[in-house]
Amino acid sequence: MGTDTAGPENDHAHGGFGMPPENDAGGRPVDHVLLGSLVGAAMDGCVSCQDPLLTLLVEDPVTTSRVIELACIATQRAFGGLPASMTEDDVPGLSHPAFRRAARAGLDGANDALFATVGAMSPGDRRGAANTAIDTLAGFLGLAGPH
Fold it and tell me: 38, 47 in Cβ contact below 8 A?
């Protein structure tokens, strides 16, 4: 793990979350440095660093799609599938509606559909979906806490 900072206004650093530098399996160009920095800040529970990183993330639909995909993979591995609260609009739960749309599109390994759905979203919807994904990943990693 390297040391990443969210910007010069911050006088602290977070351990980066190691992400391989390659493109995703579909050959799409994922910004793994940005993604690793964001996950590192989330693991440390540092909202002041997450906010500017999320702003950068949502301008990159491919990398936003990847973090949503990773959250879905982690959930599927933990539970053997995605709960309805992460895919269905009318089921109570904390997942943002845009996350639910993307997760639903990507069910059964339909990664191209997930990436297309996220690519068609507004930056605001991508931000909501990414927030759910980051919270999900940090929760599974069990390392999020106050900074």
Answer: no
pLDDT means over runs of 10, the chain (147 residues):
43 62 70 88 87 95 94 90 94 95 92 95 97 89 47
103 close to 87: Cβ distance less than 8 angstroms: yes
Q: Which amino acid is at 124?
A: G
pLDDT of residue 139: 82
Rg (CA), the chain: 14
Q: Is 60 helix (H, G, I), strand (E, B) or coil?
A: coil
- C-alpha 47/C-alpha 6 separation (Å) is 11
Q: How far apart are CA 99 and CA 131, in angstroms?
A: 9
Query: How many CA atoms, within 13 angstroms, populate the side-chain half-sphere of residue 25?
Result: 8
**Nearest Cα residue to 105 out of 80, 123, 88, 90:** 88
Please tell me the predicted confidence (pLDDT) of residue 90: 94
Q: In whole angstroms, what separates CA 27 from the centre of its chain? A: 18
Closest CA to 73 of 135, 125, 133, 143: 133
